[in-house]
Specification:
Layout lengths: L1 H7 L4 H28 L3 H13 L1 H6 L1 H29 L2 H4 L1 H23 L13 H33 L1
Helix pairs in contact: 1-8, 2-3, 2-5, 2-8, 3-5, 5-8, 7-8
Length: 170
Amino acid sequence: MENDEAVRGRPSAYETIVYGGLAIGILDFIDASTFFPLYFGISFVDVWHGPASGILGREASRGGGFNTALVGILMHFAVATCIAGVYFLLSRNISYLIRHAFISGLAFGVVANLVMQWIVIPLSAIGWRPMAEHIDWGLQMNNGIGHAFLVGLPVALIAAWSARRNAQMQ
């Protein structure tokens, strides 16, 4: 049974973190670079000022133009790599994440989004953002569905692939 074979092997740190981080970084980059300009009518550079604001603050990020947008892109990939690292650590100790990569990945992506929105961003230079009077369902759907399918799922599938590959090499 394929799932049993994956459990016998463990995912490689390099494959899961590097390949997973790159995969989810690229997929989420494409999503953010297309969704936010189309939905909010902002520029590509403005999109990437957001992540840079987390370390530079909003005004400094916007004031730096394209250079700080590049900082935002680098921050985005650093966070993607960290998310892949968390999945790797969890999957080394919770075999369910490897045996049931599809469902685990979708759930992990949603949880990763919630952690970003409710813990990481409020603790960054951006700080706590007051709740809006109404929920922007388009934004929430993109965040939830996007992170489920473009963040959690790819890293879970890569971890499961790596575990199967390592099981076959034993």
